[in-house]
Design a protein that fits this description.
single chain, alpha/beta, 2 domains, 3-stranded parallel sheet, 8 strands
Length: about 170
Amino acid sequence: MLAGIGLQPVAEIAAADFILNTGPWGWEENAARYEAVMQAAQRRDVPMICANPDLVVSHGGRLAICAGTLAQRYEALGGRVRWQGKPFPSVYHTCFALLGIADKRRILAVGDSLRTDIAGARGVGIDSLLIAAGIHAEEFGLRDGEAPDPARLAAILARSDNAPRLVMTRFAW
């Protein structure tokens, strides 16, 4: 991730100018593993860039913490966090420009998070497709190979400001 951008990783937080938070080192991690480093960083007022606001991701059928969980904890400790990526509009506008797409009606955002993927799409005025078998699977009442419970899904989406245009159980190719 650092290739070609002129940044040098450091081994100790005492030598850091900022924290580039892309998520935990492993899939079985929890925020407590990073507590001492985050406390030391907060005492030095080291800013954090959270490169992925997702709180959790689905990996191998299980939920794992993501960069957003670590950033939330850092903020709770009093640390400064600059959030980047979904749902913030700047990441979408950058992508639109890089791809040369002026007509947003031709874009469909696909994701499994109401909080980041679907909220981000809604925030920039593009259609979205929610993958129900992702991080909200249990909440939607999914069981092995089944579609979400329609009534449960409808009730959850009715309470959300971030309802998608479409919902699919899984996304596979």
